């Protein structure tokens, strides 16, 4: 359990700083004052996943090897997990593109994803009878605490370049003067909700799929990560470049924006590795993923507050939400269903013994 906690703590830390760092890169890459690039930072995330999640595992497997082996089902499930993670990340970008605000987009995502995760995990594992009321209470505490932290974090101060007339605020235009990503209000709300729902479903199913893929490859660590990296590369790099070739956005490559976006992608990839390690040490998606989704927004909020120098403006409900997350996390860890040993180990135990010699 100590290794499980250390592993998903790595994910909480990495995914907690992912958003703010990617935000810096998106701001630096935009050609609009006060604006944010969308797809170019996503390309950098895909490139970072390729380096950390494809190149590094290939080198590791080639030079050192590890337990486990390739299987078709394991590779397919891990690729599906990576695809779900990448589509979820793109869904966040699309929710903001359609006019969504972080004040309600992120609470809905981090509140809904762990619930979806828990239901999928319980269904796939057939462990509904092992879920006790105390565990469910802890899970609810983690979700409510994370949502409270996000809702009552200090509001960002508007930059001077954001306080411009409405005509300038609509500067996100293409060459013909048509504002990009803007639809009528009713359609915009529907698209926001669809984007948020996509993220909740994709990120909720991410952990169980990755866990199944890893188990199918005999608890390998590098092989599932490699599949996740390939999926991110195809969606974030190849997919984004295809979209940009048809519909360019007001952004450009520059050193600072590229650096911060690559750092964000590396943080995301190491976070994925932390989840794989947590599963490898015996952690289960039913409690690993809710704790990740509960802890990451707390780290994200603290990181943002400290970076902005606004520690003294924290609302009392923010502290209450933080306490709720910590207490709920402790309850979830203590009362989580442990289950039996992995199927791979059972197979190994049933291996036929050698026939004694005369």
UniProtKB/TrEMBL annotation:
First and last residue of the signal peptide: none
Residues passing through the membrane, by range: 40-62, 74-98, 104-124, 131-152, 186-206, 226-246, 258-279, 286-311, 317-336
Keywords annotated in UniProt: Membrane, Transmembrane, Transmembrane helix
Organism placement in taxonomy: Bacteria, Pseudomonadati, Planctomycetota, Planctomycetia, Pirellulales
Annotated organism of origin: Posidoniimonas polymericola
UniProt name for this protein: EamA-like transporter family protein
